[in-house]
## 1
Amino acid sequence: MTAELLTDKVAEGNRLAAAGNLDAAAKLFLDALNDDGTDLEAAYGLGTVALHIGEYPRALEIAGLITSAQPNSIKYLHLHGEAALYAKRAEEAVAIFRRLLALDPDNEDARKRLISAMLPGESYYHLLARLHPLLRPATYIEIGVDRGRSLSLAGPECRAIGIDPAPVVDVDFQGTPDIHTVTSDAFFAEQDVPALLGQPHFDLAFIDGLHTFDQALKDFINLTEYAAPHSVILMHDCYPLDAASCTRDRTTNIWSGDVWKVVCALRFAVPDIDLVAIKTPPTGLGLAKNCDGLYERLNARYNELVETFRDRDFDWLAEDMDGRLNAIPNDWQAILRHLGEG
Ligand SMILES: C[S@@+](CC[C@H](N)C(=O)[O-])C[C@H]1O[C@@H](n2cnc3c(N)ncnc32)[C@H](O)[C@@H]1O
């Protein structure tokens, strides 16, 4: 068989597969592989058909062979990642999609698949929607309001404060939040926070403002000044996906900034801090409590912590991501237990 005939056979297989005639396509791909067992395009076609008809272990086996032969092919890596995901081999899917994203950092489709593999279950927003009625905070501080989606979860009786230099609210709130159109630094420098709250402490806070490590760390520290033992501090974007989507400067659509370093820095400064990263999509949610009394201690070490962690990179974190972030599963019962409510 000439190379040309083989190419025609594979092309016809692809045409049949695109038309939904998967059995006939599979026969042609197999036929082509009988002619030349090393034809990667025929194997790719067969693997794709196997994936479509639900033969996930077979798709995974084929995809593994073709990505070994050609480790830098985006298309082959995508098939491999998909097959691993459907075959419920989450760790393999994560490794493959990360490898793909290292080669093609703008591939948002692959990043979405990586999220499915890494962080299954309800999103951070659904988790916030569960936490508000569970904790019923009388006072709430939110840093980073944007359209008001997360702020709108505060109940009608809650005294809610929103902080954002450029909010673009387009939702209806349950109560009447007090929105301060300033940066978080200006807010903490200028405002009498207990007077605004009507009590010395907040019950719940959510950090979702500027997504740089040093700013999110400062936001966390500033909040601890008004924390009681029961106060819960939530922090978005604590569980990053891959190197390109957790840089300080944004280059990708799905992006978490380098906020994850806040978790590492806090755990370094206060080894027994009551802080976990919940593995919720798209990029994790930090949850801290018992943070009263930490303000002086952390504030005194702010510059040192920024210096120590600023240049840590994703590869360092990936050596022991769950350990370094003290990660817990995205499981409501596990979260309740962590909150002492289970
Ligand atoms: C991801 S959005 C917040 C989304 C919102 N929490 C939600 O889930 O619906 C981030 C917001 O942080 C705001 N922001 C940026 N820098 C800030 C700062 N220094 N202090 C407070 N907010 C800031 C931006 O204007 C933007 O609206």
Note: The mean pLDDT is 96.
## 2
Amino acid sequence: MKPYVIVVCHQKGGVAKTTTVSALGAFLAASEHPTLLIDLDPSANLTAGLGLIRQVKKSAADGLLGKEPLANLHQPTGIPGLDIIPSGPDISAAYQLMATRPQSETVLRNSLEQQELPHEFVIIDCPPAMAAITTASLAAADLAIIPTQCEYFAIQAIGSTFNYIRQVRSEYNPQLSYKVLVTMFDLRGKLHIQLYEKLQEYYGEALFDTIIGFDSKLRSSQIAGQPISVFASKTRAAEQYRNLAQEIVAYVHKRRIPRPD
Ligand SMILES: Nc1ncnc2c1ncn2[C@@H]1O[C@H](COP(=O)(O)OP(=O)(O)O)[C@@H](O)[C@H]1O
Ligand SMILES: [Mg+2]
């Protein structure tokens, strides 16, 4: 069966895209769901945050251009059940080449559909831009996760990210669904709570029940080159990302099994 493909995207940087990919992937893998991460950000934060920057064998660049099957590009992260196709210095050149090639938006989707990968989930980390690479990722995805802080400007930026997703959906991928994830939440912050209520009113079911609080251990785990599940598995953020993984597994299960009605 084709893996379930999740893309984590937002046109803003610093909203916890990479952190979410790493933590979610690690907790899915830990709960017996083999997962492949794909780092498509030229800044390679995901690859670095898993301590792999010096061990990159092949990057995602050749996969984006359809030159090499994805099955030849992934490498283990050292965490059981979790593999990665890392980012590398050749990703930026691949972006530029993509722009000159016809139908480059669907190369990634075709690769994911045509190849037998041993993974149940694929999670793609995108750069903070709604450009060719994000289009190609969204065209290949089942679910887009948009992480956001409960800050006015971050919430404002969701609007244009949504417009972009809707456009990709109508052009390439009518099955694409999306969900908003609140991150770096301060439970004692009145403004955060007020803005969260607004998000609930506006997005309803498209908002994850799980909320990720502010936890500086997440930052420390990236510096240590480990996902939070390994670095500090008992912290609040670890617990919340574990819950998010469970929420996603339940969500996918509901959508993949046809209902009797
Ligand atoms: N819940 C959180 N609490 C505290 N810091 C966080 C949290 N999530 C992410 N961060 C930190 O915020 C910064 C930006 O996160 P990152 O995942 O790199 O964002 P993006 O990929 O969207 O640019 C990083 O230093 C990360 O460690
Ligand atoms: Mg990032």
Note: The mean pLDDT is 92.
## 3
Amino acid sequence: MLKAALFDLDDTLSDHSWSSRCGVEALGTRWPELRRQSLDALTALHLSILNQFHQEILAGRETAESARPKRYRAFLTQGGMNPTEPMVAQAMAWYQEAYAANRRAVPGAREVLALLRGRKVTTAVLTNHHDVQEQWSKIEECGIAELVDHLFVSAQIGFTKPDPRAFRHVMQTLDVLPDEAVMIGDSLAADIEGADRAGIRSIWLNRTGSVSIPPPSAVTVTSLAPAQAVLDLIGGMAF
Ligand SMILES: [Mg+2]
């Protein structure tokens, strides 16, 4: 019997890619030099740099504060500019303003959470991040806070996905067994492989058309909409 549904946050519930694209677009609007690349290419470049620094922060080799200016400097430089310190600071401000103004939930995410709530399934977010408050703010700004029962942030629990201890910590806290839970996430390496190692079945949200192959314990969806189809999929999994 399904008792708990675990969700990744960024690009599973919170549409990080969309907000990030809006942030990059805001920089391109101000600096024509950046527009020598398409918005798609610039967004991919930015996400790649962001993910590199995210890994450095999770590994403790950078702090969020030390990484932030380096991240924007790398983006502007690789975007074809020769940024000064004030330009890096300006990029941070313009990006973050546009990112925050364009926060939204992943299409279907709110409806999936609402259907789970209707079935009295506990919902929990398990996210790799250094800042609990920042992750909670995302949940609130996406308008899904009342549908999320628990938030587990790697920096707080001491384990980072795909370490199975991160998943076991959640299981123990919620008092559920692995076969009473499902993990839903967009990262094959962190969410899906991690859940597999903890004995938890999963749904891989593959919105980007990745051709990677998930483990047999996972099923793949390309969208959380329509939500009922995702619920039917969860209900059809052999728990
Ligand atoms: Mg994610």
Note: The chain has two domains: 4-15+105-236, 16-101.
